[in-house]
Amino acid sequence: MDLKDKDKEKDVKIFNKEDFADGEIPESSGRKRWKNTNIVSSMEFAITGIWTAFKEERNMRKHALSAVLALISGIVFQIREFEWLFLFLAVFLVFTAELLNSAIENVVDLAADYQFHLRAKRAKDMAAGAVLVISGFALLVASFIFLPKIWDIFF
């Protein structure tokens, strides 16, 4: 057991069945530390999660680049308000799906202790499939918005 594992043990409180006998959830200093106490701390946790996804998830950065290119294209082609709504919807759905996918992958890895389990693989594959479906929707939206405008330029 190395130093990191010992530090992790300090953060983990194992509760016994008797701790829940009175129907209350036992409080521990570690639990309070991670509990949202107000709107500001909730926002800090959410922003930290988004920032972590951008730092650690390669696909999130690729989606961000695609979103920037789509938004620049929207400006260049001067798309209408209705088209902007669909473009923003597609962009935010892809980001949301990627965030959920990353969260599911992290939880599955934690639960499976980074060992191969068929159910863990299935869960991760399904989460990735959800991102693929939403990305397909985004591609469809971009096609409906931009292909006619590109067609008009060349033909």
Automatic annotation (TrEMBL):
Ion transport as UniProt keyword: no
Keywords in alphabetical order: ATP-binding, Cell membrane, Kinase, Lipid biosynthesis, Lipid metabolism, Membrane, Nucleotide-binding, Phospholipid biosynthesis, Phospholipid metabolism, Transferase, Transmembrane, Transmembrane helix
Keyword Mitochondrion tagged: no
Gene3D superfamilies the record matches: 1.10.287.3610
Family: Belongs to the bacterial diacylglycerol kinase family.
Subcellular localization: Cell membrane
The protein's Enzyme Commission number: 2.7.1.-
Pfam families associated with the record: DAGK_prokar
Protein name per its UniProtKB record: Diacylglycerol kinase family protein
InterPro entries in the record: DAGK, DAGK_sf, UDPK
